[in-house]
Known about the structure:
The complex is a heterodimer of chains A (259) and B (248).
Chain A (H helix, E strand, L loop, with lengths): L1 H16 L2 H18 L8 H34 L3 H5 L5 H35 L4 H28 L3 H18 L3 H6 L3 H13 L9 H5 L7 H28 L5
Chain B lengths: L2 E13 L7 E13 L3 E5 L6 H8 L7 E6 L2 E2 L9 E4 L11 H11 L4 H14 L15 H13 L5 E5 L7 H16 L3 E5 L3 H7 L2 E6 L2 E6 L1 H8 L3 H8 L6
Parallel strand pairs in B: 3-8, 3-9, 6-7, 7-8
Antiparallel strand pairs in B: 1-2, 1-4, 4-5, 9-10
Amino acid sequence: MNNIFAIASVVLKEMYRRKDFYVLFVLTALITLVMGSVNIFNDDKVVRYLKEICLLLIWVSSLVIAITTAARQIPAERESRTIFPLLAKPISRNQMILGKFVGCWIACALVLVVFYLFFGVISGAREHFWPVVPYMQALFFHWIFLGIVIALVLWGSLVFTAVSSNATICFIIVAGIMLLGGHLNQIAGRMNGISATITSAIYYIIPHLEFYDLRDWIIHDRGVVAWGPWLIASVYGLVYSAIFLGLACIAFRRKALTL
Amino acid sequence: MNAVVEIKDLRVEYPSRELGQKTKVAVNGLTLKVSAGEVFGFLGPNGAGKTTTMNVLLGFVNPTSGSASIFGVDVREPIARQRIGYLPELTYYYKFLNAEELLRFYAKIFNIPKSEREKRIDDVLKLVELDHARTRLIKTYSKGMQQRAGLAQALINDPDLLILDEPTSGLDPLGRMKVREIIQRLKERGKTVLFSSHELGEVETVCDRIGILCQGELRAEGRVADITAQHQTNLERVFLKIVGYQEA
């Protein structure tokens, strides 16, 4: 555990010394504030529109931060060759992968806390209503979602050579699952033969990232998500993160490192 | 004396990039022992297998056959590296860390207790004469300073075995002298040092024993004086003869 947290602390240090997060946060804040200052037909319900825009920006920004941060971890270590003095220490490759994962995941948690605080303040200031528990549930689900994404990207960084190709492929996969993942079984129902079987298989194999998107729930003030399904979905997300991390560890163990 | 490094019949093959050749043999049948407190120099032309042997000892590359152990532990076990310090040919550092932070990070990996950690960082920074630049980002250091920062990270765990891959490569005469002095001081403290170098003069000055590798095979091994006496010439000529260089 000591080694894992040592690696994670370096990831966090890198995160706060780079400018990605600050730029994305300032952009999100500016766009939301500009949108918030617009008064359309004196409609009080414009706050829902404001919340929708703000949450969309938070989702996009956090996804960009998670993917770009995770995608460069291992390739940057190999490119700058810091991986050699590091692995010459009593640390296993599995610990290195887990350390990178924990670092990225904690970094994303900090990013989400800042983003959701901003969102809470903006929406609360307009609505004079503070649904803390649903916001916390949304934040936690969002964090679980980013955990799956980070594990997937770390695995991808050991499969694809270039950081950019890994980031692009992962972004497309995540966007594809978010948009189509939940409808694949319906699509399979309209198909016949082998294509229906393949589509159904994909539906059951992929991690259903759309489960973790509570934006509509928040925008339409649907209250607290039942704790049972919330817990099951959280465990489901953790299992998928563990599967992708396991695949990353296997891929990394097989890689020969040469100076 | 106890063997700190023990290599038995080591063979390492890489996938070949040449057409019609499946594998390339980097090290072939290498058997070697380095005893405690010894400074052992690896000599050989480029591509002789020095770095590959070090890569095996550090667990970066798995041997195709044969075995290698450090302090009696198989090199594939991470715990084998608990008492090792490693300095690569060039210093590889995190751009966003200063020397103190880098050393603290590695000290955590070695599980050095918090109470001891800061003292150890102070000691190694003083030893490599970087105490004055400890809070500066390593990327702003000169090459000599970066090499000394690399040496500091290799010493943070007070290792019993130091593996140095061409430690004076690319340094000016002053930088070389400083690195040599540090190796000498470590030798006096009873540390075992295994290092590769192209500098024959340096090897003669510092090493107790040397091994000359060529095309992945150990062609000569022993004390410098014994090897030169055996061939009745100086080390440079012995080296050239072993690597097959024909003088005009």
